[in-house]
Write a structure and sequence with these properties.
The complex is a heterodimer of chains A (279) and B (266). With 279 residues, chain A is mainly α. Chain A is 80% helix and 0% strand. Chain A is built from twelve helices and no strands. Chain A has helices spanning 3-32, 35-63, 73-88, 94-104, 106-110, 117-148, 155-181, 190-203, 215-223, 225-229, 231-238, 242-277. Chain A is globular and about 60 Å long. Chain B has one domain (2-253). Chain B contains twelve helices and no strands. Chain B has helices spanning 2-25, 28-55, 64-84, 91-96, 101-104, 110-116, 123-134, 142-173, 177-190, 200-207, 212-224, 228-253. The mean pLDDT of chain B is 91. Classes of the chains: A mainly alpha (279), B mainly alpha (266).
Chain lengths: 279, 266
Amino acid sequence: MSEAKVLTIKSAFGYKFLKYFEIAKVNYYNSAAYLLNLLSRSATVILRIWIFAQLYKVTYAASGVSEIGGMTVAMIVWSLMMTQSFQSSTRPPISQLIDEEVKTGALAYSINRPYSYIFFHMAGFFGRSLPNLFINLSVGLLAALILVGPLDFSFYGIAFGMTLLFFGYILDFFINLIIGLLAFWVEDTSAFTWIYSKGQMIFGGIILPIALFPEYLQKIAEILPFSLMYYGAARIAVNFDFYLFQKFIFMQFVWIFVFGLSAIYLFNKGIKNVSINGG
Amino acid sequence: MFLSTAAKYISLSWEIIKINILSAMEYRISFLTQVFGMIVNDVGFALLWVIFFLKFPSVNGWTFQDSALLFAISTVSFSFVMISARGAHYLARNIAKGELDYFLSFPKNVLWHVSISKTEISAIGDLIFGFIIFFFSGSISFEKFGLFLIVSVFAAIIFFGFTIITQSLSFYFGNFEEAADQLFHALLGFTLYPQTTFYGALKFIMFTIIPAFFVATLPVELIKNFSWKWFLVLVVFAICIFIAAVIVFNRGLKKYESGNLINVKM
């Protein structure tokens, strides 16, 4: 391959990447502009962590144990702080946005533009979530420090946790995209959003860490997509375990593959309805 | 005079709620999806606590049956508000965008009209779930069911009063929509956990800024061990927060600036 051709391919790739990076940046600034909203969300995070700290301190004391499933009260509170921060940073759910675009027909305008509709929303999703994540984590970190004290984090725990979080966001995005795209066929997708968020709440370690589940339920929960979004990242960050990391990342790839392909299939099938109805 | 006015408002409220529900039922699939979706959603939440209590059967004397009673009261009282006064949750948005004009042009009370203007259909699912889970709350009797309904009505009044106060802050601070929403969810959040685990400053917050004690802890305690003294406390608190809400709203309304928005409601 000639040098000029390699350069053209490189710049074309760079241009495409830059486009989505700019979309993420616009959404980042848009989300960071509303400080009162960010702060009110953070206050809710503090309150929840406070509730969890008291709930698990009392529960562990009542059970007369200091560690369950390798998790101390401090580990539980830190892990819940993270799952809450990760998950609430994605609010409001992107499924609502896509649902609205499908219903109002705004999607018809987007699909004619020179970008991939799916990557456009994925970049927006990351851009919007980042400022929320920074604020939630900073506030949550302070709250956890005051309420249960510091935790002995390892470099590997944080690095591998961040990797799982990145893919967790992608997985969450694809599932939300599927729910939003269902608006092509059903009148109201809000029920799917509730059920999905409840699945996250039960099996996603948002209120009750999976390490505290009975063993048979733990095995089921660890392979479901709900735990692989945010619980996996938090669990690895607070108590690093390489075997568990391998298991989580393998299952993440499996689910991203399944939901990614399903989302693309539904999107392609759905936009045919747009052209038939004239937008 | 007062009684006849109250009777007129009650009868009119009933008619409006009926119309709201009937018009939503026109979209049958959407209606059923919302109601049954919410029931599945609530059952999912109860399941989480089934798992919790499998691991920890009792937390300071609080068992799954107590949580079932707590969910029954919170979902039923919450649904009373969402079915009859969903519009209250849009108040901050209406104020910030200057969209209250529509309600100001009618002869009826503005706060009443804004509140009753919307019905949350999914709350019917909450209501059904609340009645079902009540039967998982241990020793049930006809008297306890009656008491459950009465305390739920007072808890609903507190939910409503709290919503009006927080949403009306938009009159004073401009855009307060998300903050009001977060405060409401903070109140609701307290009603999800075993009430025997709260202590210290958090308990103080539950008595003051976020009155979760009066919508969660106290109603559960009243059904388990009824006492006239504590029942009176609940009633007085509900009346006080309702009056405070009306005052905050009416004073705020004087500061309201129209958005010159003309809406036609079909």
